[in-house]
Write a structure and sequence with these properties.
The chain has 265 residues and is an alpha/beta fold. It is 39% helix and 9% strand. It has a single domain (5-252), classed as Rossmann fold, CATH 3.40.50. The chain binds zinc ion.
Length: 265
Amino acid sequence: MKINLNDYTWEEAKDLADLDPVILLPLGAFEQHGKHLPLKVDEFMVNKIAIESANKSLVKNVKTVVAPVIWTGYSPHHMDFAGTISIKDETLTNLIIDIVESLVKNKLERILIINGHGGNIAILKNVGQKLKYDKNIYIATSSYWDFAMKEINDWRKSELGGINHACEMETSLMLHIEENIVKKNKIEDNPLKRSPYTGVDLLLGGPVGVSASFKELSPHGVIGSPSLATKERGSQLFDVITDKISNFICDFSTWKKPLNGKNDK
Ligand SMILES: [Zn+2]
């Protein structure tokens, strides 16, 4: 079975729809990741994670296909750094809805959106609600780290504030996926120092939301402790995250329609 939807002809896609596969739709962003990581990190990484998760699901005989990655997202908080490309929240909302509706129109209905960028989270949740209440379409949405919060916490070497952006986690994962693109001599730490009420770490948000641009919080775009990143630990984490997502894909493949979480288990 082919992993990428873009390798299928329309006739093959029609046959594929009859198998009711799980469709992974990776959602990325195109934004600065400090001086040591490239702009592509979010869209590149979430696509790799989706493909490996699909591969692991196929080994377990669960039919899974990866739709083309949405390479840009909502990143206004990174716009002070060159190269970042951000789209408006309503543009992203409409883009995701149009893609989902296109898939569903031709019976590719079992859709899991896997997000790879914090700035997309609120929009993605809203999209899930709009699809349900405006169009009666159920989709599953998530961010890749959500599947492995406990494991990431066990894995980390940094204190709270060390995993946020271009951080210990993202840098380790990039070292695993494409080591030679990481500029190791440019790595600079910047563990976030803010009121704990606002949340300083990906693993522990605070109760209070305050929007701030990255320029206000970091001179070079990093929030976290990338100096603790290693390739070996990146491989380990990539494996854990894709295992966990693959486990969910297996469960999701058993959900009865409408896809509201009910199954036979
Ligand atoms: Zn990122």
